Amino acid sequence: MDRSSGPGGSPGRHRSVCLALVFVALPLLIGLLALWYQADATGATGSGPRTPPPGADTAARLLAAAAVVLGASHAAGRLAALAGQPPVIGEICAGVLLGPSLLGHAAPGVWAWLFPGRILPMLDGLAQLGLVFFMFGVGRDLSAVRLRTVGGRTVLVSLASLAVPFAGGTVAAVVLADDHAGSAGPVSFAVFLGCALGITAFPVLARILSELGLSHTPVGRTSLLAAAVGDAGAWLLLAAAMTVAQAPGSSGPGLVLMAAGAAAAALCLGPLRRALHRVASRRYGDDGAEGGASLPVPLLACAVCSCAALTSVLGLHAAFGAFLAGAVLPAGSGAVTAAADRIASFSTGILMPFFFLGFGLSVDLSALSTDSGTVATTGALLAVAVLAKLLGPGLCARLTGMPWRDSFRLGVLLNARGLTELVVLGIGWEAGVIDRQMFTVLTVVTLITTVMPAPLLKLLDPKPLEGKPLDPKLLERDGKRAAATRRGPSPPGAPGHDGPREPIREPAGDTASPEQR
């Protein structure tokens, strides 16, 4: 028994009170007396209140801007989901509306206070980091698509999804180059416009397919593969356009840089990728079982940023290096996949809204001229963008055996350009390939073609197609067994494929994975 406490514990309580007075009350009293003396001395000398540190106001503005950007992005994403659109559509619109297109035009004082010039470099740094990690995810998604068992029809449709829009864009560039080509020259402008019209946003397409129940249908599988092949080719052509843009007056340096980039890409996608896969298999295993070794997320993020910085130093955009880092990532290791998923989740939810804001700050839709020439240019590019996807891969699919209805669905799906297109436009604008008016016009075309697929497909067939049996003849043409008459394991490149990684997952409720966004 504790001898310090008697009956009722009175001696123990008295001791606790004494200790509190000595070690708590007395120090507080001394501190208050010191503060009173200091305040009295300050008043006697007549010194006024001290000014806050120089960076305090900048930090407050940055945090206020970050709160507004993240809150607006989340709210707009939820509204887009309620309207039947992928959340990324709402997030893009939020970034544009926070720029001079709406907030800067309607409340310039609020806009200037919220986004002063001194915090714009900080916001741009967050935007560039989000862009780098997003492109890393795009490369990772496209590298997970297996094309070895794809049939001839899908190969033709995939090539047509790039070739026909690219041809349409280069023809349109011949007419528009004199008025809208930037300092990089007409050749880079033509290649860039062809790439911009040929892009399909792979993550946005996957989300639309999942929401409409088309993921495991022939049209859904074909559109995913066509988007993967078309986007890979478009990024290669865009890299070529950027190398030419570095030396518009001379083709020698551009050709040397292009050859060096092609050699580096071949080295990374070939021997380096196989070597990384062997190292990851030995170190982390292939099954990704819990309890095994895990890949540190900062280490993977460091590798991605290093690749992005290297390509930026070489004269290409940092996005190409991040894309290449995702393409060479070993897809069979559960530890590597888990680390990459954590990066994608943080980038999608926290960093990408700042990229949307940066894009919105650089485009002013309210300043877009409504004269007949601008309206005609916008309408012509919109028509070329839509019809090239409908008459290119859509008609090609019909001529190789796909029904008319599914062929039209395929063309509509491949018109979803989304965030990937915005990245392309930003790269072209920064490199001086296009002028500001063309940048704004292509932004309008991107927004329209991204919003268009989901409601148009619902109008064509309001009933979900998930679970309908696949056509055995179409499966046989795609290199599958003719006896497959029920839904089984997903084909290569489609959601649910029994490979090492599923780039697209079915959403649970209104929650989307980073890859689906």
Strand content: under 5%
Query: What is the number of beta strands?
Result: 0
Determine the oligomeric state from the structure. single chain
Along the chain, the helix and strand elements come as HHHHHHHHHHHHHHHHHHHH
Distance between the termini: 66 Å
Gyration radius (Cα, Å) is: 29 Å
Helix content: over 70%
Task: Give me the number of helical elements.
Answer: 20
* Biggest beta-sheet profile: none
Mean pLDDT: 77
Poorly predicted runs of 5 or more residues: 1-6, 464-517
Backbone shape: globular
Given helix and strand content, the structural type is: mainly alpha
InterPro entries: Cation/H_exchanger_TM, CPA2_transporter, Na+/solute_symporter_sf
Region (Disordered): 466-517
Protein name: Cation/H+ exchanger transmembrane domain-containing protein
Main location: membrane
Describe this structure in words.
With 517 residues, the chain is mostly helical. It is built from 20 helices and no strands. It has helices at residues 10-45, 56-82, 87-97, 103-106, 108-114, 120-143, 152-180, 186-198, 202-212, 218-246, 251-284, 297-313, 318-327, 334-362, 372-399, 404-413, 418-430, 436-451, 453-460, 472-477. Helix 6 (120-143) packs parallel to helix 13, helix 9 (202-212) runs antiparallel to helix 10 (218-246) and helix 10 packs across helix 11. It is globular and about 100 Å long.
Defining key terms:
517 residues; mainly alpha; 20 helices; disordered N terminus
